[in-house]
Structures are given as C-alpha cells and as structure tokens.
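Because showing beats explaining, we let one protein speak, sequence and backbone structure tokens together, and leave readers to judge.
___
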Amino acid sequence: MRKFKIPQMYTTTNKTIRFPDNVIAEVEEAIRGTNCNFSAFVIEATRVALENLKEEEHGSQEE
C-alpha cells in the first residue's frame, strides 16, 4: 500500500464536486502551510484509494 503524500501543484481539469463541511475543514487543516491546494490533495487521495482498491482486488484474486 502506497503512503499518502501531499502532492505538489500540477495542471488539472475543472470538475465540480460536493463535500461535507467537516471533510473540507479537515483537508484545509491538513494542507495549511504546505504548497498544496484542496484539489491537488483530493486528486492524490483519490489516486491512493484507487491503487488500494486495485491491490485489494489483485490480492483477493490470488486466494
């Protein structure tokens, strides 16, 4: 499982999504003082989640 790291800025495409207020507050706290914006954080979190799902799927196929 890959460790989550706050990503650096990179180019993205705009996509609208709704988040619960408490999740927004937690993300904003996590990125405070870093060179990361909300979107980059969510993108990296999504990438890690997708990798984890693939690893879990691969692991369950081997059993």
In short: Helices lie at 21-31, 38-62. DSSP finds two helices and no strands in the chain. The chain has a mean pLDDT of 86. The longest helix spans residues 38-62.
